[in-house]
Amino acid sequence: MERDLRAAKEHSDIANVAKANFIANMSHELRTPLNAIIGFSDVILSEVFGPVGNLSYKEYLSYIKKSGKHLLDLISDILEWSKLEAGASHFRYEEVLLGDLIAQCGRMVIPLAEGRGVAVRWDASDIVLNSDVRALRQILINLVTNAVKFSSKGGNVRISGRRGDDQTVIIEVADQGIGIPADKISEVTRPFYQVEDGLKRSHEGTGLGLAIASQLIGLLGGRLDIQSEPGKGTRVRVILPGQPKPKF
After folding, report:
1. Phi, psi values for residue 111, rounded to 5°
2. I need a surface site. Which of 49, 103, 146, 191 has the fewest CB within 10 A?
3. Phi, psi of 119 (to 5 degrees)
């Protein structure tokens, strides 16, 4: 029985790696034509080689560009998740200025926030931590993008960073959005999970943002804490160790 179980686990692991590699390869193949679609849409919209004859064409091109960017974002999420599943993510530790990183991520989501009528504000202590800047940036962007997407018009999203009493580093993203029911909080970090019912969803996405963030936080030796109340908003805390303890 033990031999059978061991063999079944080995087959399962091999199948998971093969699946992750297949998804990663397909994602790479899809990104190339999508980048071309988005790039040529930009060129035509900019009227580099002359005016577009009919304004309706410009409107259709903007739809093509928007749809292409949305699809590219979804593929990028799936690619990142497949890399994490396959154990292909590698970290490079360096000194990171937390205040600068938070400000950078805050500015990156301003176009999305302005389009939804949401204000994004940030502040952080002058903290220097030793971590992987790419992983931290992705964690922050995923969390802040989620907060903006699930906020109502006129809402606020606040990003902050501070040193905890036990010398941990705490990054917090708080919103005034729709919130998460108490019985769903433990589920939201599952891959492809959506809080809203599939037939009534009003927010686009793969359901991978929080799953990717949670995985990366764990690999950095930290943990994710979520507090939420339906109709009042959500507060997400990333708690990282003062000294990095990576899991790989």
Report:
1. -55, -45
2. 49
3. -95, 135
4-51 pLDDT per residue, tens: 888 888 887 777 777 767 776 777 778 788 888 888 888 888 888 888
Within this chain, domains 2-85 and 94-240 share the same CATH topology? no
Q: What's the Cα-to-Cα distance from 218 to each of 85, 88, 221, 245, rounded to whole Å?
A: 13, 15, 5, 10
Q: Which of 156, 167, 143, 152 is nearest to 240 (CA)?
A: 167
CA distance 170 to 241: 9
- The residues spanned by each domain of the chain are 2-85, 94-240
Neighbour-count burial for 59-90, b at 16+ CB within 10 Å, e otherwise: eebeebbeebeeebebbbbbbbbbbbbbeebe
Q: Write out pLDDT tens, residues 125-159.
A: 788 888 889 899 999 999 999 899 888 888 999 99
Q: How many residues are there in the chain?
A: 248
**Residues 6+ away with beta carbon under 8 Å from 194:** 201, 205, 207
* Residue 122 CA: distances (Å) to CA of 32, 129, 144, 160, 168: 35, 18, 11, 6, 19
- Distance CA(138)–CA(136), nearest Å, equals 5
**Which class is domain 2-85?**
mainly alpha
Q: From CA 176, how far away is CA 203, in angstroms rounded?
A: 16
Q: Which CATH architecture has domain 94-240?
A: 2-Layer Sandwich (3.30)
- Give the integer Cα–Cα distance in Å for 177 and 187: 18
Question: Three-class SS of residue 97?
Answer: strand
- In terms of pTM, does the model score above 0.85? no
